[in-house]
Amino acid sequence: GEVCTMINKKYSEFLPSMQSAEDLVAQVEGLASNIDLLKAGIENEVQRDLNVAVAEFTELKQQLERDTLVLSVLKKLQEFDTAIKEYNTALLEKKYVTAAQQLEKARSSLRNLESRKGFELKILKALGTELTVQTQNMLYHLGEEWQNLIVWQLPPSKEGSSLEALVLSELHLHTVPAQQEGPAAPPIAAVLQALAVLGELHSKLKVFGQLLLKYVLKPLVSYPSLQPLTEEQPEVFILRFKSEEPALNQPSPMEVFDKIKLIFEVLHKYLLNVPVEQPGEDRKDGRVTLAELLGELIWEELSDCLIQNCLVNSIPTNSSKLEQYIEVIRSTEEFEKALKKMQFLKGDTTELLKYARNVNSHFANKKCQDVIVAARNLMTSEIHNTVKITPDSNVALPKLPEPGTGDHPKVLQAPKLLQHGTGTLGTESRLSQFTFSLPTCRISSSVQQLMELAYHTLLEATASTDQCCVQLFYSVRNIFQLFYDVVPTYHKEKLQKLPQLAAIHHNNCMYIAHHLLTLGHQFRYRMTSVLCHEAATFVDLVPAFRRLGMECFLAQMRVQKGEILERLSSSRNFSNMDDEENFCAANKAIRQVLHQLKRLGKVWQDVLPVNVYCKAMGTLLNTALTEIVTRIAALEDISAEDADRLYSLCKVMVEEGPQVFTPLLEEDQNKKYQEEVPVYVQKWMTFKELMIILQANLQEIVDQWADGKGPLAAEFSAAEVKSLIRALFQNTERRAAALAKIK
């Protein structure tokens, strides 16, 4: 009764004629009989005299349409009213599903009314407001019920999901069915179904799913020490956690799967095994379990988390452990099967299982990634930490098994075929022991480690599956490609500024090139058939590495030559040496050049191979001597005092020049190389001849020339000798006679 008066009060403001629902019905009936009369009227009039009555007919027809419309509107209003009444009754009795369905009925009546064009009733706005209020009211009740059913006890938000905070969180499910089974539907199903009817179930589940991921599922994957504890009491089920010291840092996927499965099993039992009808969903019978709905919301995120934090870490890093991985694949299959049974998952193989089954490829990827990361770290480490290598040094490596034997060796013993001295090519083509010899020099220890990394990776490749073997082989090639690209750029400034580093880099490149010659060859019997013998090679990279080392070192040589010429340019052209200031400038220039060469001789000592060292030092000393000869030979006038002073400057060069050759640490062993200087310095004899000219009289010069067959003729052209004679001697008949003999 109370409800009726409330509604009447509402409607009376708009339709005073509607005193009550009964009135309404009477009016509807009255209208219906009116319509019948009208119909009869139209038909009679029309039959009697159509032509006369066209105008009247049109009017009557419009009247009919209006009345029909009013009638259907009133019917819909009546439906709305009834639905709201029944909703109120059901809500008081906590019949949530009925209440929700009645609200939806009222909503469809209202939609129908709103859809009529040209018939805007003021009342519709009020009805809409009423419906909204009632819907919110119902959702509030359902929200309360939901919160009573599912209670989260979470730590203060600032603690987030740290291990300490997680141990304090609990989930209580008040969904344990009461002992006496009455006819009343269990409240949980009703609450869920009502939420589904009102279209609110999805958002409630979404929030629940996010909390479940954040405080239960993801922590169980991330923290090996976290263990779930479950407890059932008469009215409530409780899930909480304890933390124990884990046996391993990395939990095995099996343990993680078991924990997650336990959570899903209890959720299934106490909460999720409830079928609900999803209105408007294109499912076969419209029924779907809560587990399925929740699975759709959280599976993807959970699966990603399991792959990233659990499966990725379980991928083995060496091929021997690959066999044991079958376990992991099996347990992943079991895990998925269990979740499908509980309807969390539908459909076929998921990403999780695909990932586990694809272990060979992940193994190869992980291995290759580890190799490249290690290689890159080595390449960006300091160049100047060096080790000395000699023709008989070895790469420290396990002994390779004989081709054809299946065993993979455990012995760590430097194998013969990795000696720098010789690449074993089999007796049929035994080469001289020094064919592949690497001269004694210093290389960066990081490059030696890089080479060991390459050998170890190839060794691993030979023991792997075809797919993996190919990937590992190419990752070794990538190491070298990377070196070629990274090192010159990464260390660019140092390689330009520091002659010692340029020398070490030169050696590094030559060392790598040397190993690349035989690298593929040593493993050719073991490489999979996929890499046919021809393909598994590194020889094609050899010229590039030799060029890389040479270019860097030659660039450094150009810098040093430039500095020598720069210093000699401050010598005042060696002219007018009788002027004290000029003599000092020339003397200083020569001292600086010798000092520069001496310093280089020291920084390259024990670093460059001896033959490279001698060539390099010889070339630079040669640059200095050539420049001095050119400048002196170009002088137009050399007085006797000038000549003496020039001679003394040249003598310093000839005496101290060879002393800059110190390729070895042991001083006494350097004598040999200092005596061989003429071999390495192309213009050495020219320089010596120039010194003779500076001290000689006219006759001695003519004798040295010996009709173009003497030592002087071997070093200077006739024009140069004549020019020197004119500069050194005054214009006399004797000079003219001497000049005549030089031709």
What's the topology here?
Elements: H1 2-12, H2 21-48, H3 54-92, H4 96-114, H5 123-149, E1 150-153, H6 163-168, E2 170-173, H7 187-197, H8 201-222, E3 226-232, E4 237-243, H9 253-272, E5 275-277, E6 287-289, H10 290-314, H11 326-341, H12 351-357, H13 359-379, E7 386-389, E8 441-444, H14 445-462, H15 466-490, H16 492-497, H17 499-522, H18 542-568, H19 580-603, H20 610-633, H21 640-656, H22 671-675, H23 677-680, H24 684-695, H25 698-705, H26 711-715, H27 718-728, H28 733-741
Antiparallel strand pairs: 1-2, 2-4, 3-4, 5-6, 7-8
Helix pairs in contact: 2-3, 3-4, 4-5, 4-7, 5-7, 8-9, 8-10, 9-10, 9-11, 10-12, 11-12, 13-14, 13-15, 14-15, 17-18, 18-19, 18-20, 19-20, 19-21, 20-24, 21-24, 25-28
Family: Belongs to the ZW10 family.
Domain Centromere/kinetochore protein zw10 C-terminal: 436-566
GO biological process, one term: mitotic spindle assembly checkpoint signaling
Write a structural description.
Residues 436-566 form the Centromere/kinetochore protein zw10 C-terminal domain. It comes from Climacteris rufus (rufous treecreeper). Residues 588-742 form the ZW10 C-terminal helical domain. The protein is mainly α and 743 residues long. Among the domains are: 55-149, Methane Monooxygenase Hydroxylase, Chain G, domain 1 (Up-down Bundle); 154-177 and 185-279 and 286-365, no CATH class. 63% of the residues lie in helices and 5% in strands. It is built from 28 helices and eight strands. The strands form three sheets. Strands 1-2-4-3 form a four-stranded antiparallel beta sheet. Helix 18 packs antiparallel against helix 19 (580-603). The N and C termini lie far apart (145 Å).
